[in-house]
Amino acid sequence: xxxxxxxxxxxxxxxxxxxxxxxxxxxxxxxxxxxxxxxxxxxxxxxxxxxxxxxxxxxxxxxxxxxxxxxxxxxxxxxxxxxxxxxxxxxxxxxxxxxxxxxxxxxxxxxxxxxxxxxxxxxxxxxxxxxxxxxxxxxxxxxxxxxxxxxxxxxxxxxxxxxxxxxxxxxxxxxxxxxxxxxxxxxxxxxxxxxxxxxxxxxxxxxxxxxxxxxxxxxxxxxxxxxxxxxxxxxxxxxxxxxxxxxxxxxxxx
Length: 254
Hints:
Blueprint: H1 3-48, E1 57-58, H2 64-93, H3 99-106, H4 110-141, E2 148-149, H5 150-167, H6 170-179, H7 185-190, H8 192-206, H9 211-253
Parallel strand pairs: 1-2
Helix pairs in contact: 1-2, 2-4, 2-5, 4-5, 6-9, 8-9
């Protein structure tokens, strides 16, 4: 391949990547618009259930209500656009994959939304109440009266829920990267100490500053990493078997 042909190939790849990103942005904007219509019922449910019932929430700005609706719509938009984004990523890398690898990696896409919902539920029903209980207990122990703005409440909630929901995509991400030969289970085991440190750091950042909360969040994240390593090894063994079958077929044809 001449330098000019290589340059054209690179330009074509960049153009294809830009086109995929535009598709994802269009879907995200459409989902964001739809999320604005769904934001009202979702807001009503969030206010009537869970930790919000323990507080008298206030608006400290004219834009607080609109801001909350936009944040809820953004979460809905991310949830809808995430599987589509993963599908577009698959479409971008699929020309470089073998037919077997192409069909195998495509099967991961439908589970993206499922894991996002599981991560959201885990964060909202388990981590967020612990964070609220801890911060509220500290505030009361200092003799302070709790008067919270609705923007503060939802920002605190989203800062916990969204990162955990995205971290629940880790097994699928690792399986996908293993499927396209970017990662191997051996490499993941080699990186285990660094990965553990990063996951524990994330758990400490998104939870209240007490050992129990950090522990209850860090353990599921570490389990997710080990599950990811196990799933990566399954994908890797299948790749080795497929390669052996191709080599055997080639020897027979010769």
